[in-house]
Amino acid sequence: MQTEPIKPKYEQLLRDFYTQLRAIHIDQLERKWITISLVVIGLFVGIITIDAFFHGVNPPSKVETVDSASLHLNKEFAEDNLGVQVDEKGAIIVRMVAGRYAFFPKHISVPAETAITLRWVSMDVLHGVHIPMTNMSTMIVPGYVAEITTTFPKPGEYPVLCNEYCGLGHNHMWSNISVIAKEDWTAPVKSAAKGGSNNE
Question: How far apart are alpha carbons 61 and 54 in whole angstroms?
Fold first, then answer.
């Protein structure tokens, strides 16, 4: 029994496919739009590639790593360094830890209409964090630092919710941010450089 050579068989299939493809009628206007679409897609992919490899623009959660198993030994995320702090440049930084089933610290106070940089880490599993009425919604991946800068538009009480199922106590995982009028907010006594915070 003789078997047909594989290479000529596939070459014939490719020729047939190409012949059928050429037989499909594509209007000239459609051809132009297909070409434009492919060029735009190629442009977007090129920009993303250049930003990723040459400008270092990557997803925030993959930029900075941390050992989730030893957060208590980590200077930045040690218990007495959590909460709201003001660095030497006057920027407001909030450091919080997510763990089943709570955010630590449980309550913080920040000023309204001011850029706030929130830095989050997880001590155990994957968590999500969402603060309604802001652009704050991100994943907290174990082993990585999630950082987002946001502004609270007006004074009030803002709940901090976990939006990623993390276990049986997921629905009890929340925290609270009190947003105070900018002129009434008092900065923490100690600066971030000295490791102080105003945890509440």
Answer: 19
Phi, psi of 160 (to 5 degrees): -110, 115
Q: For 33-42, write each residue's pLDDT tens digit.
A: 999 999 999 9
Which one, of 69, 93, 99, lies nearest residue 188 by Cα? 93
- Domains for the chain: give ranges and CATH numbers: 6-53 (no CATH), 68-194 (2.60.40.420)
pLDDT tens-digit map of 6-38? 667 778 888 888 888 777 777 888 889 999 999
Tokens read off for 134: 């802001």
Q: What average pLDDT does this structure show over 109-119?
A: 91
**Residue 166 buriedness (CB in 10 A; 0-12 / 13-18 / 19+):** buried
Buried (b) or exposed (e) across 8-22, using 16+ Cβ within 10 A? eeeeeeeeeeeeeee
Radius of gyration of the chain (CA): 26
The mean per-residue pLDDT over the stretch 170-189 comes to 87
